[in-house]
Design goal:
Strand content: 15-25%
Order of helices and strands: HHEEEHEHHEEEEEHEEEHEEHEHEH
Distance between the termini: 12 Å
CATH superfamily of the largest domain: Zn peptidases
Number of helices: 10
Oligomer: single chain
Helix content: 25-40%
CATH architecture of the largest domain: 3-Layer(aba) Sandwich
Shape: elongated
Number of domains: 2
């Protein structure tokens, strides 16, 4: 197995790739130039099997080892950016106003490209590696579409692995845990239907603003008083639309929010109880509600064998002391969860240093993390597919 020093020679080139991608961010499935850039790099490494157009702009490339027959493992990187106006002030800031790589997918793509170059040159493993470059991770379910379009069967993938950078974690450190590591994501819309009127005469109305406020408070008791405190549930109301005038009580109020859970059964509980709480509160005031609930990413669940392989690969790269194998799960979500539902594997966090947080206009991926990500991927392949 290799230490990180093996991969420092790739850092300069990977930094150039990363900064080019950062300057040219693209959204959701419309990552056409990014996919073209990735495809051209993969071909230049001597990789012969490259399939494009999966989930519109996704790519899967296959590298065969020289150690004989064996299984195929998948390594996934996401490629899409976010609709955020960049404020990092870096010389390589986005050239596309209103779009930026605020989540580090430019770094994820560059690290997997670096690993691809190394693995295509050495091929010191048996079986094959499937390099998965995914579009539309940011809320558009690109991971699910790639699974639905059959990449696991088409490329005979037996295990699949993902990685994400983590601001606030020291560069060169890794974090992972067995079982749930990121939350499921659902969202909901509630329309509170009352009776509007003049703000000076609230007694002649059924005020949906007051009712909606009561619902918001009531939803918090589902977390604090109706669920096991050891089982994480987060309900956040994030949208609230009422009248547009100071002196009007509206007929209705629209509100919306998200639900995050680490236990699948809590998704059923949240959907059922949010509706019951909203209905009960509204009807107590003589109002009614309209309710919609949508399920998105499931829980990102690390499988034991894949987790152990990931811990070993990271530990061989940086030493066991720099790998937190009891990492606390995060309540953010990841559509890599769909790939882990389709195949066993694991998802790991890589330190990005003291940078701005993800999805922040001032965020930038830390190029010092590149050799660690490249080295992790290579060690994982050579650990899992030992020749």
């Amino acid at each position: 197995m290799h230490s990180v020093d093996t991969f420092r020679d790739l850092q300069r080139e990977a930094t150039e790739w990363r900064r080019y991608l950062h300057e040219n961010p693209e959204l959701d499935y419309r990552v056409h130039n990014t996919a073209k850039f990735v495809t051209e790099k993969l071909a230049s490494f001597g990789i012969n099997r490259i399939e494009t157009g999966i989930a519109e702009t996704g790519i899967v490339a296959l590298i065969q080892g020289e150690g004989g027959e064996g299984p195929t493992i998948g390594l996934r990187a996401d490629m899409d950016a976010l609709p955020i106006l960049e404020a990092s002030g870096k010389p390589w800031s986005s050239k596309i106003t209103g779009n930026m790589h605020a989540c580090g997918h430019d770094g994820h793509t560059a690290m997997l490209l670096g690993a691809a170059k190394y693995l295509a040159n050495t091929r010191n493993f048996k079986g094959s590696v499937a390099l998965i470059f995914q579009p539309a991770e940011e809320g558009a379910l690109g991971g699910l579409r790639m699974v639905q379009e059959g990449i696991m069967d088409r490329f005979s993938i037996s295990q699949v692995f993902g990685m994400h950078n983590s601001p606030g974690m020291e560069v060169g450190n890794f974090g992972i845990c067995d079982g749930p590591i990121m939350a499921a994501l659902d969202d909901f819309d509630i329309i509170v239907k009352g009776k509007g009127g003049h703000a000076a005469s609230p007694h002649r109305t059924i005020d949906p603003v007051v009712i909606a406020a009561q619902i918001i408070l009531g939803l918090q008791t589902l977390v604090s008083r109706n669920t096991n405190p050891l089982e994480a549930l987060v309900i956040s109301v994030t949208k609230f639309n009422a009248a547009q005038a100071y002196n009007v009580i509206p007929d209705h109020v629209e509100m919306a929010g998200t639900v995050r859970t680490l236990v699948p059964d809590l998704r059923d509980f949240a959907e059922r109880q949010i509706l019951a709480a909203a209905h009960g509160i509204a009807r107590a005031f003589g109002a009614d509600v309209e309710f919609k609930y949508r399920r998105h990413d499931p829980v990102t669940f690390n499988h034991t064998e894949g987790t152990n392989l990931a811990i070993k690969a990271a530990g061989n790269l940086v030493g066991a002391a720099s790998v937190d194998d009891k990492f606390k799960p995060r309540m953010g979500s990841e559509d890599f969860a769909y790939m882990l539902e389709a195949r066993p594997g694991a998802f790991i966090f890589l330190g990005n240093g003291s940078t701005a947080n993800l999805h922040n206009p001032a965020y930038d991926f830390n190029d010092e993390a590149l050799p660690y990500g490249i080295g992790y991927w290579v060690n994982l392949v050579e650990t899992t597919l030992a020749a």
